[in-house]
Design goal:
- The chain folds into 2 domains: 152 residues, Thiol Ester Dehydrase, Chain A, CATH 3.10.129; 114 residues, Thiol Ester Dehydrase, Chain A.
- Helix 1 packs parallel to helix 4.
- An 11-stranded mixed β-sheet has the order 1-2-4-5-6-3-8-11-10-9-7.
- The chain is an alpha+beta fold and 289 residues long.
Length: 289
């Protein structure tokens, strides 16, 4: 039986949606995900917020939404699902580990859109429980599917660190990037706050060192979707095609401020890219094709 659809005439207010998702009170602590689709009609990008997003991530204004922007637009719906009473976790401590986007046609930045999302695929993995958020963006007038995404989140097991456990082996050298010229990026301390003003996502781990410390981070960390968007902006015209597939894995947290390197490698059906720390560990690995 298909999941029931709850229709909204507008997107939920972001601050309230974030608060409901973050607070653990009223959660059922069950073991299943709510079987519901949230859908909002007549959604449009705010010109003010879109301008901030372009400035924060490095996109030019060209009359179309950046490839990653629909995910920002639909974030209030994601939080609406995560804030349902029968969603068994708090959003704080739930980690975004992978993202896959498929764009079927570029979206004009003034388009009226219908957006929807639902849960899928709760599963056990060694680190905890993974699940997916499935998102669809359609043209409001015709119902044409324009953009869709799968966001994979992880709720980690509460496991104490073993001081005597062997350290993980360093990742193998990725030969694809052997001839790639690294582009240095200096990422300023206010990156998380600038992204929050554009996206409405004021998760405290991204704002300041003071607000991040109660959640176990010595400094604020960059939002993973900011890092991905910054990569897409850096790729330039290759990200301006109509039909595109973008996938990434979020690896090591990117503390603010930081110096990192961005690299690309041409492949037969697209371009691979990565963001690396100064000590040679990946923050993000991705591919656009």
């Amino acid at each position: 039986m298909s999941a029931p659809i709850f229709d909204l005439h507008s997107l939920p207010a972001m601050p309230a949606a974030l608060l409901r998702a973050a607070l653990p009170f009223g959660k059922t602590r069950g073991t299943t995900l709510p079987a519901m689709t949230l859908r909002a009609h007549g959604c449009r990008a705010s010109p003010v917020l879109l301008e901030r997003y372009r400035a924060a991530c490095g996109f030019d204004a060209d009359g179309f939404l950046p490839l990653t922007y629909p995910q920002v637009l639909v974030t209030p719906l994601h939080l609406g699902l995560l804030g349902l009473p029968d969603f068994p976790y708090s959003v704080l401590g739930t980690v975004h580990v992978r993202n896959r986007i498929q764009q079927h046609r570029r979206l004009p930045d003034t388009a009226a859109l219908t957006v929807s999302c639902r849960f899928d695929g709760l599963r056990e993995v060694p680190a905890g429980q993974e699940f997916d958020l499935l998102t669809r963006v359609e043209a409001e007038d015709s119902g044409e599917l324009l953009w869709q995404a799968v966001s994979t989140l992880l709720r980690r097991h509460a496991v104490k660190k073993d001081a005597e456990a062997p350290r993980k082996a360093p990742p193998p050298v990725d030969a694809r990037f052997a001839s790639s010229r690294p582009a240095p990026w200096a990422i300023p301390a206010d990156t998380g706050r600038r992204y929050a003003r554009a996206s409405g996502d004021y998760n405290p781990i991204h704002l300041t060192g003071l607000s991040a410390k109660p959640f176990g981070f010595p400094r604020a960390i960059a939002h993973g979707m900011w890092t991905l968007a910054r990569c897409v902006a850096e790729l330039g015209e290759v990200a301006h095609a109509d039909a595109l597939a973008l996938e990434c894995e979020f690896k090591k947290p990117l503390f603010l401020p930081s110096r990192v390197t961005f690299q690309t490698a041409r492949e037969s059906a697209g371009v691979a890219f990565r963001v690396m720390s100064e000590d040679g560990k990946p923050h993000l690995m991705g591919r656009l094709g």
